[in-house]
Amino acid sequence: MKEHVVVIYPHPDDEAFGASGTITTFREKGIPVTYLCGTLGEMGRNMGNPTFATRETLPEIRKQELIRACEILDVDLKMLGYRDKTLEFESTEEVAEHLYSYLKDIKPSLVITHYPGHAVHPDHDAFGAAAIKAAEKFKEEDRPTVWAQAISRTHEEELGGPDIQNDVTPVFKKKFETIMAHKSQADGMIAKVKNESDDIEEATKTWLGVESFYTWQF
Residue 66 in contact with residue 182, Cβ under 8 Å? Predict the structure, then answer.
C-alpha cells in the first residue's frame, strides 16, 4: 500500500495543537497528507485577544487561518462544510459515508483522528467515531491503520498508556508556526503561556512537545 496519511478532525486548529508535529515528520519524509476538516469552528468563543472578530466574521477568519496553517504544513486541505457544535446530532453512519467517499479515493495507509469518548468535546467524539467507522468500511486487507488521539484527563487511567508517543521537539518550530497561524485561537493560549515564561515557543514546547495516539483495534 502506498503511504498516504489522512487527518480527520472537526475544527480548524485541531490539527495544529494535536498533530502538526507528526504531520511535519511525515511531510519531511515525502509522505502526502490530506486534512479532512469538518467545520470552520464558527461557534468558537475566542474572537482574538484583543478582539478582532465578531460572530459574523469569525467563520471567514477561521477559514483563512486554516488555509494558512495547511500551507505551512504543506498538506492538502478538504473543508467538509459541517456546522460547528452540531456534529453530535448528525447521523454517524451518514458522516462516515461522507468521509469514506474521500478515503476510498485516497486509499490512505494511516488515518489520524480523535478517540471517541476520550476527546473532551462532543464534536471531537462524534467525528472520531465517524472517522473510525469510515475506515472500517474498507476490506480488512485494505483498511488503513487508525491512530486515535485521546485528550481526556482520565484516558490513561481508563485506556492505559498510548502506544505511540511522537517526540516532535525537533520539528517544533513548524508546529509553533502552525499554531500561530490560527491567531484567533492561539492568542488566548499564548496569553496564558506569557504569564509563565518570556520564551513563548519554548514554554509551549514543554506543553505540546509530545503527540500521543492509540492504535485503534477494530
Answer: yes
Distance of alpha carbon 69 from the chain centroid? 12
The pTM score is 0.96
| Type and span of the H or E element at 189 | helix 183-194
Would you list the domain boundaries of the chain? Answer: 5-215
Hey, what's the cell of 211? 503527540
Q: Which residues of 150-184 are buried (b: 16+ CB within 10 A; e: fewer)?
A: bebeebeeeeeebeeebebeebbebbbbbbbbbbb
DSSP H stretches of helix in 13-91: 14-28, 58-73
Task: Give the pLDDT of residue 137.
Answer: 98
**Cα(185)–Cα(88) distance, integer angstroms:** 22
Other Cβ atoms within 10 Å of 67 Cβ, number: 13
The closest alpha carbon to 87, from 45, 67, 116, belongs to: 116
- Does the domain at residues 5-215 carry the CATH identifier 3.40.50.10320? yes
Task: Give pLDDT, residue 33.
Answer: 98
Mean pLDDT per block of 10 residues along the chain (218 residues) reads 93 97 98 98 80 86 97 98 96 98 98 97 97 98 98 96 98 97 87 75 91 98
Quote the longest CA-to-CA distance of the chain. 51
